[in-house]
TrEMBL record:
This is 4-hydroxy-tetrahydrodipicolinate reductase. The keyword Zinc-finger does not apply. Pathway: Amino-acid biosynthesis; L-lysine biosynthesis via DAP pathway; (S)-tetrahydrodipicolinate from L-aspartate: step 4/4. It is an enzyme of class 1 (oxidoreductase).
Length: 350
């Protein structure tokens, strides 16, 4: 059973000041146990309690992408599969803003085959499953520098990767699921260039990398501490976030005992509005995570939080990955398979 995050009875917790995106959602957020997510607790204990360390990452959609539209197009044609989906549309918009060229073709379902979708100034023809190999080979011949972007469905991960590798097209894959060992082996055996990462949000990946470093360098630093985790996503996401699992794994290396079944999953829209503080316009696309650590005697508390509204953070990270991969292909880099950490380490993101 999922546990509910509770405020320790004998500990004053100074909550991280919320961003404006949370502030406009209301002033009082209570869960069934009385935990107030928006509460400002004044210090009635020792001054040390006002120095509880906190880390927080918040991301909201970039509202002025048009202002940064480059004057010249970058010679990187990209094919965005599942362009009719919300993520596909966000990636195409980010590609337009970055100056990349979106090819007028995309893979979709059999039901969508033959349909044309308008995304911004791009008119894109959908090709069904039966046309995939022929279409991709034709596009590669027409656009020799083509890179495919894949945000489709978990069940298509391996088949799609095998197709890209068979035709010899570099690709960026943000789709989760599938047989990951088989996926990586497919790419390594084919020697096709690829960036594969289930998390494309650059800042979130940087946070995860920092957590990994802390776990590796300070194992057992939180031994004996208890952990409570809350994560809220759109109702269509039924499983526990992969990002949450990665962060929890780091805490486990740091000495915290925790079972994944204890994660408090928030998928009810009313709870997301009233308890978590998700803006109504982002109920269909958000990722709010909070990790609460307490010492055995509940005199010390830590909070780690990262909140994402919309999909722009993932779309921007995807475009950085495309540009990164194009450079690797152009330079004929020896390494072929990359992840988002490699993109971050390059240090030349927009």
């Amino acid at each position: 059973m999922a546990s509910t995050l509770k405020l320790p009875a004998n500990c004053v917790v100074v909550q991280q000041q919320r961003r404006a995106v949370l502030a406009r959602a209301g002033t009082s957020r209570l869960d069934a146990t009385g935990f107030n997510w928006k509460q400002r607790v004044s210090s009635s204990s020792s001054s040390a309690m006002n120095m509880i360390p906190k880390m927080s990452i918040s991301a909201i959609p970039n509202q002025s992408l048009e202002k940064s539209l480059p004057k010249n197009k970058i010679d990187i044609p990209i094919m965005v599969n599942s362009c009719s989906g919300k993520m596909g549309k966000a990636i195409i918009q980010a590609a337009d803003s970055a100056g990349l060229s979106v090819v007028p073709a995309s893979f979709g379902s059999a039901e969508e085959s033959g349909q044309t979708f308008q995304v911004g100034a791009n008119e894109i023809l959908i090709h069904g499953p039966d046309e995939r190999e022929r279409t991709l080979a034709s596009l590669l011949e027409k656009y020799p520098n083509l890179i495919v972007v894949d945000f489709t469905v978990p069940s298509a991960v391996n088949d799609n990767a095998e197709l890209y590798c068979k035709v010899g097209v570099p690709f960026v894959m943000g789709t989760t699921g599938g047989d990951r060992d088989r996926l990586y082996k497919t790419v390594e055996d084919s020697q096709v260039y690829a960036v594969i990462s289930p998390q494309m949000g650059k800042q979130v990946v940087a946070f995860l990398a920092a957590m990994e470093i802390m776990a590796e360098q300070f194992p057992g630093a939180f031994s004996g501490y208890s952990l409570q985790v809350m994560e809220s996503h759109q109702a269509s996401k039924v499983d526990t976030s992969g990002t949450a699992k990665a962060v929890i794994s780091c805490f486990q290396k740091l000495g915290v005992s925790f079972d994944m079944e204890q994660v408090q999953l928030i998928r009810d829209s009313q709870q997301q509005l009233e308890m978590v503080g998700v803006p109504e316009e982002h109920l269909s696309g958000h990722a709010f995570h909070m990790y609460h650590l307490s010492s055995p005697d509940e005199t010390v508390s830590f909070e780690f939080q990262h909140n994402v509204c919309g999909r722009s953070i993932y779309a921007e990270g995807t475009i950085d990955s495309v540009i990164f991969l194009a450079k690797k292909v152009h330079s004929k880099a020896e390494k072929r398979l990359y992840n988002m950490i490699d993109v971050l380490r390059e240090g030349n993101m927009r």
